[in-house]
Write a structure and sequence with these properties.
The chain is an alpha+beta fold and 171 residues long. Helix content is 42%, strand content 24%. The chain is built from 5 helices and 7 strands, in the order αβααββββββαα. α2 packs antiparallel against α3. The N terminus is likely disordered.
């Protein structure tokens, strides 16, 4: 009997990962913007001005944060997006190697204003971030059809400020 109990979670996990998807697609994990030398120079100048400004008013910690943020932005700008496989099944959603059962998801919404095409999920946990998926060329109505029996759709949800700002600065 003890063996049956230990095998059950493993079999369930294998079943979730091998469940035939209702819809599946591949897409880049984020938009890959072309950034020229001028972009890097401008980011460096803005970061340096903010850092020096913080030093002038003797805000040491703020200066360190600005310097680190500038470094992180410039470092992240060179990252190339991976192609991720996304799928929706009758048991949950799959994002690359990570499976999310429907009971971990609260609701979803689709932002479809080409070139912006994202599917977002709000998790039931307060401390986990949103799950955002690039839907690429997949029909949003096909996604709605696959999810309608499992999750409520949050209508008229738009793109948030951080996403708009990131696109504006080409991050």
């Amino acid at each position: 009997m003890a063996e049956d109990k230990t095998k059950q979670p493993v079999e369930q996990a294998v079943s979730e990962r091998t469940e035939k998807p209702i819809i599946a697609w591949e897409a880049k994990e984020f938009t890959d913007y072309q950034r020229n030398k001028r972009w890097y120079i401008l980011v460096g100048i803005v970061g340096a001005v903010l850092t020096v400004g913080a030093l002038v008013i003797q805000q040491w910690l703020t200066a360190v944060v600005f310097a680190l943020a500038t470094y992180v932005v410039m470092r992240h700008a060179g990252d190339k997006p991976r192609t991720i496989t996304y799928s929706i099944s009758r048991l949950g959603i799959q994002v690359g190697d990570k499976f999310y059962p429907y009971n971990d998801l609260k609701q979803y919404w689709i932002v479809y204003n080409p070139p912006i095409r994202t599917l977002s999920f709000q998790l039931t946990s307060r401390f986990k971030p949103l799950i955002k998926m690039n839907i690429g060329e997949v029909d949003p109505d096909a996604i709605r059809e696959a999810l309608k029996e499992h999750l409520p759709e949050l209508p008229k949800q738009g793109e948030d400020f951080i996403d708009k700002f990131s696109r504006w600065v080409r991050l």
